[in-house]
Each structure stands twice: as C-alpha cells, then as structure tokens.
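User: I'm preparing a small set of examples for a lab meeting where we compare how different chains pack in three dimensions. I only have the primary sequence for this one, and I'd like the structure in token form so I can line it up with the others. Please keep the answer compact; I'll paste it straight into my notes.
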Amino acid sequence: MSYGYRDANFYTDTQGAQVQLTWQTGISRLTMGLDWDEQEARNSQDPSGRPFGVNADYERRGLFIAEKLSLFSDRLLVDVGLRYDRYDVETHETQGYTTLKIDDEQMSEWCPRVGLVFKTTENLVFKASASRGVLLPTAGELAGDFINSGWYQDGNGVWQSYNVHYLGNGALDSEQSWTYEIGADYTAQNWYLNGSVFYADYEDKIETDNYFDVVLAESISSYKNIDGATVNGMELDFSCDLAPALNLGWSIEPFASLTYLFEFEDDKTGDDLLYVSDTQARFGVKTRSGSGFMAQLLGIYHGPQDVQNWNMYPATVEEMGGFTLWNLTLTRDIALPWRDGMELVLSAGIENILDKKYAYVKDYPMSGREYCFSAKLTF
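Assistant: Understood. Below is the structure token output for the 379-residue chain.
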C-alpha cells in the first residue's frame, strides 16, 4: 500500500535528574531517593493544519525506597520497594486547534513491589515477584482533536480516500495493573535458559474507541477506559556462545525469546483484546570481537491479532495476519587516547532488510526498509 501525508514536525525536549542514597549494613541494603523528569512536546504541520499531536508538557516527581535483604549465605534475596509519583500533564495552544481545551491534569500514584530470589545451586535460581504499575493517558489521548485525511492505494491498486477524526477523552483515568510472576533461570558454562509465567490484572485499561458519529457524519477514533482486563502467559529466553566449541577468538551467540499469551480478554465482555497478538518472538545471532566490533542479525515475529475494519460501517472485527521483520546492526567501539574512559561508539544498521509490507492497524502501513547511523561519545 501507498499513503500520502502532509509534512509534520515534531519537537521533544527531555530533561531529568535523580538523587539516591544507599546504606549497606550486614545483610541489609537500603536505598532511598527521589527523581524528576520533564518533557516538552511541540508539534506543527505544513501546510498549516492540525498536527497529529497537541503541544504539551509532562512532568513527573517521584520518591522511592527499596530494601534488599540477603539471607542464608546469599541463597535467598528479598527485595521490597515502594515509590510515589506525582504527574502533571499540561496542554498548550496548538496550531490548528481552535477548540482545544487548555488544561492541567494532575495525578498521583503509589506503586509497591516485592520480589524473592532463591539460589538452589550455582546454576539454578528460582524467582517470584509482585508489583503494581500505572500508565498515564497522554495529552493527545486526553485533549487531541484533529482530522487525518488523505489517500492510499489498496491491495488491488485502487486509490481510496480516508478521513478519520481523532478526538481525545478528557475523562480518561490512569491505567493500573498488578502483575505476578514466577520463574527460573538456569546457567551453564556457555548457555543460559530462562522461563517464567505471569499474570496481569488491569483496571481502567486504556483502549482505542473507534465509532461512526451519525451527527458529525464521520469516523471517530477516541479512547476509553474499560472496566478491567486479564492478561497471562509465559516467557522463554535462551542464548548460548558457540565460540568455545568452535575454538574461535570472538563470540558467536545465537539467541531466542518467546512471549505467548494464554489469555488476553476484556473482563466485562469476555472478548479478546483488540490489537494484541498472542505470540511474539525475537531471535537471531550476534557476534563480538575483542577489538570492539559487534554485529547482530535480529528477527522479530509478531503473530496474528484481531483488529477493526473501518472500510465498512458498522466496523467489523477481523484477524490480521502475522509478519516477520529482519534487522541488521553493526557497532564499533573505539577507545580514544585523550582521557581515561573516553570512547566513541559508531553504529550503522538496516531495519526491515527485506522491505516487508506490514501493519499493526488495518490500512495504516508501517515503514519499509530504513537505514540508520549514529555516533555516541562518552567521556
């Protein structure tokens, strides 16, 4: 598919700070601290019109405390923590938004966690944890109000127009969840295996809310809180180093990870959550030399998922097929002689090597092949 869009400009300025103190006494390690971060987002569109995001400032201030106990000659680790966060989301006047509600939303949340790690042998470790998480609505989800229109070429080569009105929901609450996990790690001389199962219980989960407004005679894409959702599944991770067996001077490490969901449903309706795949996997191979060169070939699999089809009204739910992407990254670490620890890291890569056509939302294709380059100087 092909799409046509106006030119959009996005500017984000992020800053933050953290201070923490740690006390180590015998079997106890106590950490206390505070952190702060702020993000300023500004958006515009050429020719003049409504950009896809609203101008907003995000600020978070947090306090945290964590206690780690090491018991029975370090065979049992107990990790208990609590953090408090206060959030401010402030929307500002934005190009093209004549009815934008200028507002300052303030929210605060407590998030406790507890974890246990039991080391049965040098190779085998069992672990369990429980934690509370919070996801705040963005400024766009709260106050967005723009129309995305244009054209695309469908699978039959026919050009079609589209017009979707994105509308925020100022009544959104923060998304909350409790997550429980148990698992085990096994480490041998040159390989590693991890397996775990998890259960997550969501309250006020934020979901897209797509509907056709008869009064406005247009498709609306908004957001809503659903009463609750349940997600549970398993995770597997494996990696190994073939260099010792092959008698090589650099590492060759195949790796794979899998996330499979047993259940992901809306507690009220019993339906599967939309735009959620039950299977996701990452796999590939990476190599590293002693001179600072690293290469990685990464495959990413995203399984089928249920999506809404808005090419008809009322919209229907249908399954969108899965896809696999391949990415290649090359990195070179160069130690610089002018100062201890000074280093230049050069990275180049190709994302979506095979130029795969794919989408997470029907008729909204993602980028094709992309070339990336970066340089980072640390000192």
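A couple of notes for your slides: The first strand starts at residue 3 and ends at 4. The two ends are 46 Å apart (CA to CA).

User: Perfect, thanks.
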